[in-house]
From TrEMBL:
Originating species: Acidiphilium rubrum
Name this polypeptide is given: Phospholipid/cholesterol/gamma-HCH transport system ATP-binding protein
Entry's Gene Ontology molecular function annotations: ATP binding; ATP hydrolysis activity
SMART domains per the UniProt record, alphabetical: AAA
InterPro entries in alphabetical order: AAA+_ATPase, ABC_transporter-like_ATP-bd, ABC_transporter-like_CS, P-loop_NTPase
């Protein structure tokens, strides 16, 4: 396989236990370069845990994960250069303007002069539709704008792979749909790979090329595939119930 079509992420029989309590076992899938891949499942099934494994914040108790071709446990520093992460809380620093928030990774990880850092941060904020808001504080913007700013910060170092933890959580449906369009626009413009944790059905149908569904009772994955295919063809009752709950 050439490097151009190598998978962006390989999750190979990953498992996680905490103090002997198994959260999931035998989770395996690949994420293709340029794909929007969604991780979904009910509360407590291990979505955030799997995300933490993929970004090198948690060592899997079983199996192996590679991101950008690097083992996330053995080569975590290299993996970190490949990824941008938007955590669920967004976590913008309240005392900094949006421009300063987006500049932060450039301050921490590059030697670029201040003017270049500011210019890059302006470009990233413009890409997420916040060109006019660069000098505002997080307290002065809406929830949807805060998510966009957090995505701009995740983009600051031009990572080829973006991880977004519940980007539409806490947003109204129209603002959430706007974020979905932003994700698709960014994928088209930047040609990057997205892993998105969400359980918003509309959002999954709008953005996901493929998805994996975890389940707390099964302690593992119960579906992998294209959302519309799973909606129509899955024989698993939990998968069928999830994808057909509002029958969009
Ligand atoms: N560091 C930890 N130590 C012990 N248990 C943990 C730890 N992290 C997560 N868990 C447990 O693992 C299970 C899965 O948690 P996780 O946050 O990954 O679920 P989730 O699918 O993301 O849920 P939600 O949708 O509610 O955010 C939960 O029961 C949680 O309490």
């Amino acid at each position: 396989m050439s490097a151009a079509c190598a998978p962006a992420i390989v999750v190979d029989h990953a498992g996680q236990s905490f103090g002997g309590r198994v959260i999931f076992e035998d989770v395996s899938f690949t994420v293709a370069t340029g794909e929007v891949f969604v991780v979904l499942g009910g509360s407590g099934c291990g979505k955030s845990t799997l995300l933490k494994q993929m970004i090198g914040l948690l060592t899997p108790t079983k199996g192996r994960i590679t991101v950008g071709g690097y083992d996330v446990v053995e080569r975590v520093a290299l993996v970190r250069r490949e990824i941008g992460v938007m955590f669920q809380s967004g976590a913008l620093f309240g005392s900094m303007t949006l421009l300063e928030n987006v500049m932060l990774p450039l301050v921490m990880f590059t030697d670029l002069p201040a003017r270049a850092r500011a210019e890059i941060a302006r470009i990233k904020l413009a890409m997420v539709g916040l060109a006019e808001a660069v000098n505002l504080l997080p307290s002065e913007i809406s929830g949807g704008m805060a998510k966009r700013a957090a995505i701009a910060r995740a983009l600051a170092l031009d990572p080829p792979i973006l991880f977004l933890d519940e980007p539409s959580a806490g947003l109204d449906p129209i603002t959430g749909a706007g974020l979905d369009r932003l994700i698709l626009d960014l994928r088209a413009t930047l040609d990057c790979t997205f892993v998105v944790v969400t359980h918003e059905l509309q959002s999954i149908f709008a953005i996901a090329d493929r998805c994996v569904m975890l389940d707390r009772e099964a302690r593992g994955m119960i579906a992998l595939g294209v959302p519309r295919d799973l909606q129509q063809s899955s024989t698993h009752p939990t998968v069928r119930a999830f994808f057909n709950r509002d029958a969009p």
